[in-house]
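Researcher: First entry.
Model:
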Amino acid sequence: MALGIAATTTTFSVGYGVVLRPLPFPAAGRLVRICETNKTVDGFCVASPPNAMDWVRQSRAFETIGLARESWFVIEGADGSEEEVTAGLATAGFLRLFGVTPLLGRILEEADLEPGASRVVVLTYGFWQSRLGGASDVLGQPLSLDSESYTIVGVLAAGLEIPELEAAALWVPLPADYFQEERRGWRGFQAVGRLRGQVSLREASSEITALAARLAQLHPAANEDWGIELTPLLDWVVGGVRPTLLVFFGAGAFVLLIGCTNVANLLLFRVLAREKELAIRAAVGAGRWRLIRLLLVESLAYAALSAVLGLALTYGLVKVFVALAPSSIPRIEEVTIDGIVFGFAALLALFTSLFFGLAPALRAPSPHLSQTLKGAPQKPSGRPAVELRAGLVVFEVALALALLVGAGLLIRSFVAAARWQGGFDYEDLVLVSVLCSQKEYPRAADLGHVYQEVVRQLEALPGVLAAGTTSAGPLFGGTEMEEISLADQPTQESWPARWFDVGPGYFQMLEITLVKGRYFTAEDHAEAPPVALVNQTLARRFWPDQEAVGRRVKTANGRVLEVVGVLADVKPFWPRPHTEPEIYWPNLQRPRWASYLVIRTASGVTGTAEAIRRRLGEVAPGMSFSQVHHMEQIVRRRLVRPRFNMLLLSSFGALALLLAFGGTYAVMSYNVSRRTREIGLRTALGAGPWQIFASVTGEGLRLTALGIGIGSLGAFALTKSLAKMLYDVSPTDPATFSGVIIFLTLASLLACHLPARRASRVDPIEALRSE
């Protein structure tokens, strides 16, 4: 019982701390995420600065709306050293939304965003302590960021963590040029608003939807096909992890129910063993309800002791959970054991005492009072009691099977992910995300030359074998969709395809196989005819029995592209196990201000990441860039959560199997002890040891088979909740179900073996003499 209560309370404390506890901001329930959405991209939640500025001017439902995004700066020390630091670019209203108060100085103000305003920076408490030693005279001091001097105007209090911007070590004002009209189509920000006190989410949603429709009419080029949605900030932060935590809570509850079932069976045995005591109590005046109350109070005492021990186990399990949980679980550091958790454990103890105590209590009064007091031989339990014990065994076997199937599916999913082979070589690959300043590069046509020069400079570095550019790619993007149709057949139905823009040499560097045609070259520039590459999946969909090279396709915005090559499919890593139609076009023809650099380095060479970062700062002064990430590290990080899910649910499954094993053994052992006289008579009449053994084992296997049948039906329904946690394996995978059924059957055979063996060795003379 303590194990079951600990498992359930641990998952509840995590679920409450992550999903149910309000965000640690003033009036957090009125904070909403404002998402500009596009029907071609699932889960897109972005915002355009000019659009957001119009919302602020025209909305009456919001007290304020703030914008922010993550950026990176190179900070220069007095000794000439350089260090990359993550910063938040934000409007003044963004920090005010979260009730941020400075420890020193002030936070960002509206005047800081005006054109020509002095460059200012607000430090987080951690940066102030680690980088500047917590100096009290820090206000007014200069700080060099990307070779520009910023003035420190404030230090924030300790413990501030803005959702999705937790890594920001300092905050700087969003440059004024981000709000210029030409930026309206660039959506690289998160927008958060605070609702006015009496405004509901529905009212605010209606208002801002009308505003978005008006802006789409005024600025169709930037806002066509874009919608808008409001989501409570808490739901946005934890929405992705809520289903997973519900699965874990359900698994803990299953373990608890199996524990309750075992205890119910054991107490039922104890009641049957206490027939004489209960008969004496009844003889001296105890009524039926008095006896039931007595046994329920005893059950409550068991549950209370179990709850105390369970809470002690919970304290340790929560620490282990938080330590092992992937950092991608939001708010995991906020999980604690508090009064809410203690109250939950108390209610759990009350529920379990009723669950496992009621059935034995209802069996309390002896139906043969006089015979019991005379010491008459005990008769085997009546049919209702036998059926109740058998039903409890069936119930716990069914629950154990559901948990073991879930654990088996997650194990197979993790193995499939760990064996992932995408169709390209990701060893010795590094990744850098870059963002070009539109002030420095106002024309998109200029970007192609910038990217070419950056690639050329990087390939000249010692230890760099090749480099390429892309908007997204395997493991780090590819969510944007485009409707593609055949240009030569205007009535042809269009199909959605994932699109990427890439530079020359990108596919050769990744060693992605070219099936037909040619790769992109430097000749595929803005003045050249528009071209595209497609993957095999898209080629099979459009031209199943024809040659794809030389065909023409049309995008949703009317661009006609000639297919010049077909690439081998690149299998996605997560969460899509199957390759979807993909189309690529040269970023020299359609360059974007945001891109990725993918660089292949020589094996065993050190210091390459630092050299890449320095060279990027020298080549493109108007380009901000992220830290250098190794692709192998990205793959390992992607495996952290599936590994954690697998280990946790497997632990619950192992515990469920152990409890089910113990429950089956206890029932079979008790049945053998109650049937000693019957077994002795059968032996005396000629039944052999193997017949007795088979009889007892068969009884246990019948209960197991019934539990497996019911559990399989339940597992088929329950495993659908695991679908989003699985990779390359179906929630109804036959191999997993078959393996679990075989494993559970073998465990049941083992549980029945010892009682059956003991029954086969009963001495008929001793059995009859004892009666």
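Researcher: Second entry.
Model:
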Amino acid sequence: MNDLRYAFRQLLKNPGFTAIALLTLALGIAGNVIIFTIFNALFLRPLPFQDGERLVNLDEVAPKWNLEYTGVALEDLVNWREQNQTFESIGAWEDTSFHVSLKGEAQRMEAGRATYDLLDTLGIVPVCGRTFTAEEDKPRKGLVALLGYGFWKRTWAGDINVLGQTLSLDNVPHIIIGVLPPDIGPLARGQVIVPLARLPDETYGWYLEGAGRLKPGVTLERAREDLRRIHKSMISTRPVNEITSPRVTPLRERLLGDYRPVTYVLITAVGVVWVIACANVAGLMLARGLSRGKEISVRMALGASRRRVVRQVLVESLLLSALGGAIGTLLGQASLSALVRLFVNHFPAWIHFTMDWRFVLFCLGTTALTAALFGLMPAAKMVSQVNLQGALQASGSRTSGSANQRRSLNFLVVGEIGLALVLLINAGLLVQAFRNLQRIDPGFRADNVLTYAVAVPRIKYTNNQHIAFFEEHLAQVRALPGVKAASATTIVPLGGHSGTFFEIEGAAPRLKDEQEPVVLMRKAFPDYAEAMGLTVLSGRFFSETETRSNGVNATVVNESFAKRNWPKQDALGKRIRYPGGHSPWLTVIGVVKDIKHYGFDQPMRPGVYLPFHFAPEREMTIVVRTLIDPKALLPSIRAVIQKRDPDLPIFQIKTMAERVSESLWLRKSYSWLFGFFAGVALTMALGGIYGVISYAVGQRTNEIGIRMALGAQRGDVLRLILRHGVLLAGVGTAIGLFGAFAMTHLMRSLLVGINAGEPAIFISVPLLLTSVVGLACYLPARRATRVNPMVALRYE
């Protein structure tokens, strides 16, 4: 307690030192608090399920189709469920949406279809009511529904009497049998869950997300082998299983794995900032400790042991660290809250960035480690090189410190500069990679384009009435003031995937092991190329002729499809059809330029467009190119819909500019966050070198005065001080270049579209750093040139 009281007095006695040290530590710890909280929420906190570590994601992979994930076919899932030896249970779901009319307002609600055993597999227990039965998971018998917790609270105010009531989904009444808890993991988007209610032999393709609960003690590899055995045994009755195979992944890794490399990179960045902060404060304490040499000598002369003095210094360090940690934790939490508000729509709904016991342990551990890191070196240096006789006999009130102590200060500054350069170079690479992505031509024009979806219920629009609806709706939208073009498609760019295969007329049969990529297939109305801003390389897009129900069977392909199937040939006039020989041939009437459909950093697949009438869909995305602000048209569009059908909502309302921004949000976020941390590191490093040079100038005041008295000019003194700073910067820069080059290889997966050893970055950033360091050295050097020789000599 005596040590603690003395430490408080020392900190209050030196407010400038205390303020700088606390600010430095707070910045270093705040960054770690932010990133650790994110890492904890994503990868350390248990999944919101019982025994979540035994849950796995089930999918299928098809290298021949160039698909890493195909989804799960229901027939495969049923056989895995019935014949496996390693799973307690297996279930699956698919995302969907329904029309719901609540309080007189039509809405499109996100929902899910799940097998009867999925909730038991995930360990989800309803808040009230029950889950589905196996009987309800059959066609025409599954007219029951489970409500999401938030939907229940908003609509029924948490009334338990909701059980047994009827909810109309797409004009079909469903009986409410239960309410789900708040945290339901991958099902969190669904406000309503209904039974899948489909037969295994129905042709739906690969469309399910599977989940399995491993038996206790079963390893992932054993589970994979078990499913592979079952999958291969089905080849005789299901030949396609020779192409596909099961994929078993820990559930957390499947849901959140995309965030892992980014989080690790940010952890490295804030770790470097923290080390720089510790080095900065260690340098401050070492410089301050050197000026306390006489005090330490008196203490030891009066009987204090080296251990006692070290303890006192460490108590000061711990106090500083505790105060800095408290400020840094508050600053980090406030900053994190702001970040979460910015990105709340991008993280899964079941992720919660809140404090828990891991967070408390991290903060306590960081505080203790910080105290040790910046406290041990100064304490050891203070007592290890104290010369009692020399210090007690010194006439001055301060000591200049040994050469070894000054070298320790220089070592800290060199390390700070090197680490700051590592972050600056990699931040420059990340930001440049992001800016390069923004400059990529996506193949479409995102400016002034509004998109929204309309889904026409089957029970209300029978006998192809949905075809007439979309035709009439597009005609009415085109007539609105401010509309340049309007069309519709099944999938807009950056809007998902729907794949199939096509047979090429006259093509040689593919070899057994030859890759046959899945073709991206979209259906569209006329004017789609104009509305989306596609580039037609040859031929033309669909006209009204091709989109009539009795029109010409035509198709438009992208350049990847044309190059793969007709290399060095003109694709126009070539014919394709669905495999099997029963579908009509489709004539290629146009070739469009590839677009960045899957993301700006993803390659394009072979793709085709089919006329809407060739296979009409009930859900379409309307694309409107405008002459005014796209969102300004929404009231008019809603009025058009309301006049035609008051129970029909529009949903997924976004401009194409918003879709582009959302596709880049993760890259933008970590690039600028990394850049921010690099900027903090640079500021700290500059503060460190400024402090060291200022300390050196202060310690050499008498020497400088003597030099000037003997004839040295101000320029000579300026060069003398600057030489010291430039030497430190040069050594730090050399070390930083090696570290930066090593780190770029670890970040290679994030540096898409840019050379990891980009010469412009590796040359410009060190030059910029050296210039800024030179400025930090110049200020104390300029002060040194103003030393009055007479005052210095009189002092000496």
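Model: Note on the second entry: Residues 395-400 have pLDDT under 50 and may be disordered.
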